[in-house]
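Progress against Task 2.4 (sequence-to-structure conversion) is shown through the following example record, which the project officer requested during the mid-term review.
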Amino acid sequence: MTPGKAHGSEITPKFHPELTPPLAELEAQERRLVFPRFTHDDAWALGCLLVEMARERQAPVAIDIHRSGQQLFHAALPGSTPDNDAWIARKRRVVERYGSASYIVGARFRAKGTTFEDSSRLDPDTYAAHGGSFPINVEGAGVIGSVTVSGLPQLEDHRMVVEALERFLEKQ
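Structure tokens generated for the chain above:
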């Protein structure tokens, strides 16, 4: 992030290409993190796991889980702001439109030598291809929703969601 600017007040958070995992690794995460089913109870359990992880790390995040257009879980931890909810909505819309993690969508544009903002022809006030929103992909059904975290730098948001999904799916 730019010094003196809050995460939510930037249009494009500072990007560090040297920290970005290879696109193939990111896409492998999506192929691996598939649910056998996803119920209201699963949304609650996954959301609570993310809250627990965020509290352990004192992460000032907001957390959101949507399925089929319905919000099933939302939490705003201390230090999060209304801007985080706006980022959640923008990142979630990228997942809904592309059927892929918001961070991966941004990485695909960068791999082509451009940016999502410059080349997607979508309103950046409505869509944000920044890390933190991941598709809820169910075997046999495809992408049915998303789980989103906002409040950390984009790669950390993405990693927190991936870690929670890995932990959750280990128990399935």
